[in-house]
């Protein structure tokens, strides 16, 4: 089952729940999008056994909830203390995360692709200048008994070294291409899996890792909301789902203070829903800022590279005129 099919299922189940049309029949109709007949049959059998939409979809990675939370919700469902209407909130959170992920992929892909093009252009210019232009200048300067400008001399010698500008540019191209493929082919299923090698790789990269920490935190808030809707107290929810506030720059004490007050007035679930929407809005702005910074760092590197190439190639011309 691919990411497109899972997105389709989440989206249409959300519509059905919103219009109060979710039933076993409509659930099976939505599952017809799955091209793999074996998986489709397994999902239907799992649902027949569990009689829980959330547990079935969670088992097959279509939604992502902590198994402890799913067990609590299922227990409350059996006692008819919770309805499947809170299923809508789970699907809504996945829509938020999916939109964030697509925004991150689009922005990073565009900036990395542009930088790869510029670095390839710089490599071509550097190869042409160091193999064709600078050797002629060097020979002319030797014949005229005039020393090459220091910058040109160092640049020429650096290009002969083991770690030359071309090697550094090749290293950048390798890393940028690896990052591009890791981001571009990242799926919601991999995002929801803590064991995914692709996610582990992305979470080690400065700037980018903070974006994925924020997505993880939205999932954590979603788990917290579902646990609270299953009539657990806030202290029980936090004990069940300890969250990491350090990676997302939130004031833990302030947030927990607000949630405590909301619980006292009977609006804990509503406040968590507000915090999810607010955090999503903040994350969108932060994504823009992080991408602008990433582009600025890349452009600074490329600008310095082009500046050195231009200075090292044009300086001999100007200095030759002064020497004559």
Q: What integer value in Å does the Rg equal?
A: 28 Å
Report the uncertain regions: none
Spell the H/E element sequence.
HHHHHHHHHHHHHH
Number of helices: 14
> How far is the first residue's CA from the last residue's CA?
73 Å
Mean pLDDT: 76
- Main β sheet profile: none
- The helix/strand class is mainly alpha
Proportion of residues in extended strands? under 5%
Envelope shape: elongated
Helical content stands at over 70%
Number of strands: 0
Concise overview:
With about 325 residues, this protein is mainly α. The chain has helices at about 5-20, 25-30, 35-50, 55-60, 65-80, 85-145, 150-160, 165-185, 190, 195-200, 210-230, 235-240, 250-265, 270-324.
Write up what this structure looks like.
The structure is a single chain. The chain is mainly α and 324 residues long. The protein has 14 helices and no strands. α3 packs antiparallel against α4 and α6 runs antiparallel to α8. The longest helix is centred in the middle third of the chain and has 57 residues. The protein is elongated and about 95 Å long. It starts with a helix and ends with a helix. The model has no long low-confidence stretch (mean pLDDT 76). This is Type II secretion system protein GspF domain-containing protein. Keywords: Membrane, Transmembrane, Transmembrane helix. InterPro entries: GspF/PilC.
